[in-house]
Amino acid sequence: MFEYAPAPESRDIVDIRPSYGLFINGEWVEPQGEERHKTVNPATEEVLAEVAWAGEADVDRAVQAAAKAFPVWSAMPGAERAKYLFRIARIIQERARELAVLETLDNGKPIRESRDVDLPLVAAHFFYYAGWADKLSYAGFGRRPTDGQGGSDPRPLGVAGQVIPWNFPLLMLAWKIAPALACGNTVVLKPAETTPLTALAFADICRQADLPPGVVNIVTGAGETGAALVGHPGVDKVAFTGSTEVGRLIARSLAGTRKKLTLELGGKAANIVFEDAPLDQAVEGIVNGIFFNQGHVCCAGSRLLVQESVADELLEALKRRLGTLRLGDPLDKNTDIGAINSAEQLAKIRELSAAGEAEGAERWSPACPIPDRGYWFPPTLFTGVAQSHRIAREEIFGPVLSVLTFRTPAEAVEKANNTPYGLSAGVWTEKGSRMLWMASRLRAGVVWSNTFNRFDPTSPFGGYKESGYGREGGRHGLEAYLAV
Amino acid sequence: MTTPLAEVASSPSTLRAFLHGLPGVDRVGADARAAMLGTRSIKTTAKKQAIDMAIGMVDLTTLEGADTPGKVRAMCAKAVRPDPTDSSVPPVAAVCVYPDLVATAVEALAGSGVKVASVATSFPSGRSSLEVKVADTSLAVAAGAAEIDMVIDRGAFLAGDYLKVYEEIVATKEACGDSHLKVILETGELATYDNVRRASWLAMIAGADFIKTSTGKVSPAATLPVTLVMLEAVRDFLAATGRKVGVKPAGGIRTTKDAIKYLVLVNETAGPDWLHADWFRLGASSLLNDLLMQRQKMATGRYAGPDYFTLD
Amino acid sequence: MSERTERLSVRKTYKLFIGGAFPRSESGRSYVVTSSKGDFLANAARASRKDARDAVGAARKAFPGWSGATAYNRGQILYRIAEMLEGRRAQFVAEITAMGGVGAKQAGEMVDASVDRLVWYAGWSDKIGAVLGSSNPVAGPYFNLSSPEPTGVVAVVAPQEGPLLGLVSVIAPVIVTGNTCVVIASERAPLPAITLAEVLATSDLPGGVVNILTGSAAEIAPWLAGHMDVNGIDLTGADPELAVTCEELAAENLKRVLRPPVDRVNWLADPGIERMTAFLETKTVWHPIGI
């Protein structure tokens, strides 16, 4: 046997304060209320820090600060705004290791992922949108639809209220803040209640970059804080990434306002494997599709649709592969599966998995020792799943794969589209014409063909149907932050 | 695998149909998988274990026109006792030489347990008649080579004449007698991973005991993704036939870090059952000294210097 | 010798347009359409929620074929609609002037502008993809292409003003990109809408791509806004109260909502592409590049 000795990344590189205030107008300020919450390391349940819970008055203060900063920031030449964003991108690169460790501590994701995926993408996103700041008139949004006058530059919207989830805390921050700032908006951002630390570290980065006060404000808190932010009359733009349930509430609450809204919500993506697929790579793609980031991914390939003629062969290979996944200490550089982000999320995964068994699907996990402390769930797959089962319809947001079969391409499309969601899909085939046929029929915003869970700042991301609206990334991502 | 493999090679068309029916390999996906495994962090006790494992898997190789009996004898001494100052260092698995130097190596290694491997079949190009290739093999076997590293006819393979390649391997295997046959695919000339997978199966069906990436004379030689594809092939071949075949990446593996990446690849692809010199070899020459230097660094805590390791 | 009598005119019955057919409202209801002076013009069908449901069904059924048609084909059909509209110029002028408030010259200009608007949109069918799509230079060995795709079934509350030009200006951008729609015509001035339906029915437009309901927007629009098989809603013609109600209902399945304009729309102005982009999704396809 060849046992890998523990190879933990050192956590000494991060300096977590015992307590954090709110970042408003370039300063750390104390909240008006008394309420504070502890953020824990989900792998150990150790308390990492205490974080302020912003109330309405705090949110108001932050929005005021952003509104005050808006005239200056939006009037600044794009080239100057760009330089601030480039500066931020560089600082992120320089502090990448520290931020990766901090992300892993607060979120529970493996250091391999925060180091090799999250942080490089965060820096790349700032670099990408930095470059747009002085090129907005070339982005294709210049022409005003109603006045018939061509050629005017696109205008920013004003104050953006942004609410982000806990699965990719810093990356989602980058997806929100980089385009907003590039377009000349100012922002108030609320990180998720269980993963505030990298956003708070980002506040320090804004100071390090000498970003003008009020351009970026960060308020911590839970749902009420988010509701106060999106409902604030001084907010001109709302951007939300999270559950479809909350997205619905936000969409409803914005009815009758002139606030622009973009939503990036849930998914139940089909990962479709044809008999002529490159099977070894398909297995990797399935694993990456559902076990990347413990399956806490809105675009996760949570439904495997495999052609019946290769189902047995593929499942055998998949099970063998799951046996090599390494679950454990997220700071260990060899860990593949980290901790579930919270006790609440763990309970939800357990509940849905129990429902899968109760509804008659067959549950399988590899032999996989689970640590004593912290929140953990083994990589799990369900076979014999029917479209009607809850585990085939509801977003589990955990390392749980539902396996279904199909016989023909048309049936695959039908099953893949048979969901209220439409965020992503995967297609595995070596036949180009079939791939394109599938891609054109799948009602999903991102189609990964012979790959899965790839992201890039130049590539628009976002869903159809109940997976939300608007795109993040690429030229398309600018539209959310411009008056077009 | 439902096709009875015995019948696969009964005609050019059945052989072709079988090889072309193997699942394709997506190059980008295979590269990404190999790169990910390359990020495994092998430290402390695991590194120590890996270094000794790697030393024991080295096929210490010299395949130069300028090779002499003296050069081969020196290399054999190194093979048996890689670090004269440290008797806990295991010997390497084998030495690998040209056929005319097999006898020298056999004599030098007598009783050591280190095997003698010989390249054959008009290595490295394989451009000769079957008669010459078989005679080349027989010469090496007669001189005492326990292992034969043959090359396939890449021209025939690329021309789609799979049966010719098959028949040459079968004939060489026959000439090997009890000696083990390693089949060099020369993956750098096969160009695609689909071809690597097909050539791997072709060699295994024809009776290869080992499949080997490269001659070391063509660039690229061994790469992680190519080895990944070959490891998948031996894994699947075992499942299909019950016969286990070894894998040998050769050429371009120079550092301990590289060697450990290969061991991780084996561990997580074919599985730990392959982590033995019977089933996995590293064809290399300069790698051995780097392994020894890293080994010493781990034992002493100091960085090692090349002057303290022999150059043979 | 019989006495010479004035010929009794044959009055037109204004019905709904659903799935390419002209049914009466399943409810059997109708309402009186009058001119601005209060003169009787016609009875129009007063669509019910069930008519709205049927129209959504027809639009959904038509969606795969229409969205799957080539852009060239859709453009040809929109151009054909413009041709047919031109041919009925006199009838539309008569219907618009009958409504009152507009002279024949101005009505003629509105019809001409409607024809020109259709021609303009017809040309967009095979260009919008090039304008909105992109080839994305990702940092890796992947081919990455984004292209616009139609949202699906779109409900349209047509403007109350500008009975023909406003109507054409909200329908054309929705369908040219491959969506199908259910339109609630101007309640006060529905007659040109039904005549337009006759144009559509004879223009090679597949049945169900455009469905037109007459009646009360306040009554029908909320059913469409809340319908779980409708993907988007254009609230251009909804009054502020109705717009809020519909936007709230639309949140249930995250419909794409085009809010009513802040200012009164000048339908003669260059429309821009906003009405098309409001009901387009962006699909991004990744594929590895390797040998």
From TrEMBL, chain A:
Lineage, highest ranks first: Bacteria, Bacillati, Actinomycetota, Actinomycetes, Streptosporangiales
Indicate yes or no for the key word Oxidoreductase: yes
Output the Gene Ontology terms for molecular function. oxidoreductase activity, acting on the aldehyde or oxo group of donors, NAD or NADP as acceptor
Q: Where is the Aldehyde dehydrogenase domain?
A: 28-483
Write out the similarity annotation: Belongs to the aldehyde dehydrogenase family.
* Record-linked PANTHER family: ALDEHYDE DEHYDROGENASE-RELATED
Which domain of life does the UniProt lineage start with?
Bacteria
Q: Which residues form the active site?
A: E264
Keywords of this entry: Oxidoreductase
Its name, as the record gives it, is Aldehyde dehydrogenase family protein
Is this entry keyworded Kinase?
Answer: no
Q: Which organism is it from?
A: Microbispora hainanensis
UniProtKB/TrEMBL annotation, chain B:
Per the UniProt entry, what is one GO biological process?
carbohydrate catabolic process
Catalytic activity from the UniProt record: 2-deoxy-D-ribose 5-phosphate = D-glyceraldehyde 3-phosphate + acetaldehyde
Q: Which domain of life is it from?
A: Bacteria
Lyase keyword on record: yes
Extract the GO molecular function terms from the UniProt entry.
deoxyribose-phosphate aldolase activity
Q: Has UniProt tagged this entry with the keyword Aminoacyl-tRNA synthetase?
A: no
Q: List the GO cellular component terms.
A: cytoplasm
Among CDD domains, the record links this protein to: DeoC
Q: Which residues form the signal peptide?
A: none
**One Pfam family per UniProt:** DeoC
Q: What is its EC number?
A: 4.1.2.4
* Pathway this chain belongs to: Carbohydrate degradation; 2-deoxy-D-ribose 1-phosphate degradation; D-glyceraldehyde 3-phosphate and acetaldehyde from 2-deoxy-alpha-D-ribose 1-phosphate: step 2/2
Sorted alphabetically, the keyword list is: Lyase, Schiff base
User: According to its UniProt record, which protein family does this protein belong to?
Assistant: Belongs to the DeoC/FbaB aldolase family. DeoC type 2 subfamily.
Q: What is this protein called?
A: Deoxyribose-phosphate aldolase
* Encoding gene, per UniProt annotation: deoC
From TrEMBL, chain C:
InterPro entries xrefs: Ald_DH/histidinol_DH, Ald_DH_N, Aldehyde_DH_dom
In this protein, which residues make up the domain named Aldehyde dehydrogenase?
27-257
GO molecular function, a single term: oxidoreductase activity
Question: Which Pfam family, any one of them, does this sequence belong to?
Answer: Aldedh
Q: Which SUPFAM superfamilies match?
A: ALDH-like
Source organism's superkingdom?
Answer: Bacteria
Could you tell me the keywords of this UniProt record? Oxidoreductase
| PANTHER family in the record | ALDEHYDE DEHYDROGENASE-RELATED
Q: What is the name listed in the Swiss-Prot or TrEMBL entry for this protein?
A: Aldehyde dehydrogenase
Q: Which organism is it from?
A: Microbispora hainanensis
